[in-house]
Amino acid sequence: MAYDYKSSLTNDMLSKVTLILGGNKGDRERLLKSAVDKVLLQGNLIKASLVYETEAWGGIAKGPFLNQVMQVETEKNPLEFLVFIQSIETELGRKRDDHWGDRTMDIDILFWGEMVIDAPQLKIPHPFIQDRKFVLIPLNEICSEFYHPVIRKSIHELLIECQDPSEVIPYKK
Question: Model's pTM, two decimal places?
Answer without folding.
Answer: 0.89
